[in-house]
Amino acid sequence: MKPVAAPAPAAPPSPYSSAMGKSNIETHTLSVLVDNEPGVLARVVGLFSGRGYNIESLTVAEVAHGQHLSRITIVTTGTPEAIEQISHQLERIVPIHKVTDLTISGRAIERELAMIKVRGKGENRVEALRLSDAFRARIIDATTESFVFELTGKTDKIDEFVELMRPIGLVEVSRTGVAAISRGPAAM
Predict the structure, then answer these.
(1) Secondary element (H or E) of residue 110
(2) ∠ Cα 28 33 39 (to 5°)
(3) N or C: which terminus of the chain has fewer CB atoms within 10 Å of its end residue's CB?
(4) For residues 133 and 139, is the Cβ–Cβ distance under 8 A?
C-alpha cells in the first residue's frame, strides 16, 4: 500500500479576501497633508486602485497657500489591518507630510455638502418643503416646478434626506464628499 501524501498546508487567510476578514469591515476617514503639486493626488489614488482598495469619498483643497500644502480627506472601508496598511503605505509617498486616521483618534468632526434637485407640484411640493424644513435644508433655487436644496451635515443625514426625496420627485444630487477636522486646539 502506497503512503498517502498529506495535503499541503493552507496559506494563512488574507485580511483582504477571506470571508473571515470581511466580517469586520470598518469605515475610516483619513486626513492626509501633502505638498500642493501636480501628480500628488494621482499617486495617492493610484495607491488605492493599485491595491484594490475602494475610496468612498475624496475631497482635496489647499489649506496653506504660502507653504503650498493641501489636505486630502479620504473615506475608505476595509478591515482594521487593511486600513492600517493603507496608512503606512500613504506615509511612504514622498510629498506626503502627515497621515492621520481621524476615526481612530475619535475626536473628529465630519461634514458634507449636498445640492439636491427635486421636481414636484401640489402635495409633493408641500411635502418637499416640509421635509427640507425638518432637515434644515436651504432652498437655493426655486421654480414653479422644482427646488434645489442645499444641505450640510453628516453623510447619514444627507443619505436620509435623499431617500425621502426619491418618491417625491428626486431629479439629481451633487455632493462634495466628506470634509473632516480633529477637535481641540492641536493641529493635524
Answers:
(1) strand 108-119
(2) 105
(3) N
(4) no
Decide if 28 contacts 100 (C-beta within 8 A): no
For 118-173, the pLDDT digits (tens) are 999 999 999 999 999 999 999 999 999 999 999 999 999 999 999 999 999 999 99
> What does pTM read for this prediction?
0.78
Alpha-carbon distance of 55 to 78, in angstroms, equals 10
pLDDT band at 23, cuts 50/70/90?
Answer: low
Contact 32, 72 (CB under 8 A): yes
- Cα-trace Rg, the chain: 22
| CB 178 within 8 Å of CB 111 | yes
